[in-house]
Each structure stands twice: as C-alpha cells, then as structure tokens.
Amino acid sequence: MTSFKAFQVSKEDDGSFTRAIVERDTSALPEGEVLIKVEHSSLNYKDALSATGNPGVTRNYPHTPGIDAAGVVESSTDASLAVGQQVIVIGFDLGMNTAGGYGEYIRVPAGWVTRLPTGLTTRDAMILGTAGFTAALCIHKLEAAGMQSDGGPVLVTGATGGVGSIAVKLLSQAGYETHAVTGKASQHGFLRDLGAAEIHDRSEFSDESSRPLMRETWGGVVDTVGGTILVNCIKALKYGQSAAACGLVSSPSIPASVFPFILRHVNLLGIDSVELPLDQKNAIWDKLATAWQIDNLDAFAEQLTLDSLSDAIDRILAGNMVGRGLVTHH
C-alpha cells in the first residue's frame, strides 16, 4: 500500500461539485492487473466535463479525472508488462468512471496499456495525449480513404485546440497545404508557426444556408467542432474526398442533406480514440514516434500541476486554452 496525491472532484449534498487535492492509498484503487506510477497526464475537454459533473462522462463521485496517463509499471500480474516498463494509457474507461491520470498512481486492466514506443518520452506522449493521438488518427483514416498532399488544401477546424493544433502541425509537416479555422484572432501567429498556409475566421463557416452544395474546395477536413461548421465543410469537399469528425464543441447535431454524398461521392469518417483496439492504438503511437514525430513538442505545452489544474479546467471550458495542458506529477 502506498499513499499518493490525487485531484479529486466531489458531489456535494446541494448538487454542486467541488475540487480538492487529497491523499489516497493505492489499496483504494480499482481492480486491475497493472499498477502504474503516473509521471504525466494532460488536460482534455472531456476531463473538464468530468470535473464539472457531466453525467455523460462520469456518473459516480468522488472521482479523479484524467483520461490520459503515462508513467512506469510499478507492479503487474500480466507477463507482457514488466515492472519498470514505460507505458501509456489513454481512452477506455480511464478518467471517466475509473480513477484517472490526475492521481499519482492508477490501476488498470492490462488490455488498456500501451507500451511507450522508442522515440517518445512519457512527457512527449502526454503533450500529445488523447488530443494528439486523435489528430493522428484523423489523418491516418483520411489517408486510408484516399487523401493525398496534391489533392487540394486540407482544412482543420477548431485549430487552436489540442486536436486542431496538432493536426495543423502534422499535416503541414507531411506536405499538405493546411488551412486553419479559428475564432481567436490573437492566435494567428501561433497557427502560422505550426505551418498553416491560410487562416479563416470561423464565421466564414457558420452560414446556415439551405444550399446543398458549395464550391469544391477541400481535399480533406479534420473537424473538431461539429454542427453547422462541419456541414459546410462537407458541402465544400472535393469529389471523392473525406471529412474526419472527432468533436462536438459547437454542436453534436449536423443538419445536413445527402446531396454531397450522392453527387460528389464524399465521405464522413467517424473518429473514436476511446474504444479503439489496442493493436490499432499501438500502430498510431508508433507513427507518432517515427514518421510523424513532431519536433519541439514543448511549443504546444502549457505546464500544469495539480495545484494549477482547477484554473485550467475553467479556462478550457470557457474556450481560453491554446495547445495542450501538460499535467506533471512531482
């Protein structure tokens, strides 16, 4: 048994939710084959929802959020995971209804654990985290559907967020003409530094017109926001091209017609990093450690601790976070 610090969210009798740093014991962690000493985690929008009582993310409190964790195996009953091995856990139920990476220890099933690939540190892995992994998964799936660097500009919506910013970097690094959509005029320089060739204000994509099609423009789309913006992206896809949908911060609804799909042969690709089988997760992490490795990952990271986490949660909910929040356990 080992005591450790954890960021804990509690539901009060009046229905409100409070946050505090508490002492826990490893004996109180859920069952699982692998105990991991967490070195780094990250801040995602889903973590902020868990920290504010969203029942679609977390049902039972008190709870420790953190859907990402990277660290070292402390003990294991699974022969494939040795004590001292560096590992990553993202998705599945971590940080949702299973105590997550905002604690200094987690205990999880072996089937949730990804080995840390050579070429990444645990810090690198958590600057990327679920957001970076999702960005890479979007591009992987778009390329599998036929997206090519000479097929026209690729659009990234919500481009200053965690998924969007890393998608811009990965696409531009891979030779795509990358266009970014944002409502943050103050962050145009940040996006240009990532490689965005053009930056569009999100108002350009908020037209609720009933027009079924728009001028063919995009050779691919990474959409992190959903709603009308996604619909307008689909209407402007080039013939045979695809949009990858991975977010809903604008809206979970898409008021679309079938015309782009049946007249332009386009595709809407769903992206899920939570239940993705472990072999496919390993393949994406291997790409991020090799062919898709990003130089100067620190440029994306805002360093956070358990003490500064509550303020950062409020900022990400308000849309005031840029890049990635890296949570480090000391």
Low-confidence stretches: none
Looking at how many chains there are and whether they match, the oligomeric state comes to single chain
The string of secondary-structure elements, in order, is EEEHEEEEHEHEHEEHEHEHEHE
Integer average pLDDT: 95
Helix content: 25-40%
Strand content: 15-25%
Strand tally: 15
**Number of helices in the DSSP assignment:** 8
The rounded Rg comes to: 20 Å
Shape type? globular
Largest sheet: 7 strands, mixed
First-to-last CA distance: 19 Å
Structural class: alpha/beta
Topology:
Blueprint: E1 3-11, E2 17-25, E3 34-43, H1 45-51, E4 68-76, E5 86-90, E6 105-108, E7 114-115, H2 122-144, E8 154-156, H3 162-173, E9 178-182, H4 188-194, E10 198-201, E11 220-223, H5 227-235, E12 242-245, H6 259-263, E13 267-270, H7 278-289, E14 301-304, H8 306-317, E15 324-328
Parallel strand pairs: 8-9, 8-11, 9-10, 11-12, 12-13, 14-15
Antiparallel strand pairs: 1-2, 3-4, 3-6, 3-15, 4-5, 5-7
Helix pairs in contact: 1-8, 2-3, 2-7
Description:
This protein is α/β, with parallel strands linked by helices and 330 residues long. The chain is 26% helix and 25% strand. The chain contains 8 helices and 15 strands. Strands 3, 4, 5, 6, 7, 14 and 15 form a 7-stranded mixed beta sheet that branches. The longest helix has 23 residues, at 122-144. The protein is globular. The chain starts with a strand and ends with a strand. The mean pLDDT is 95.
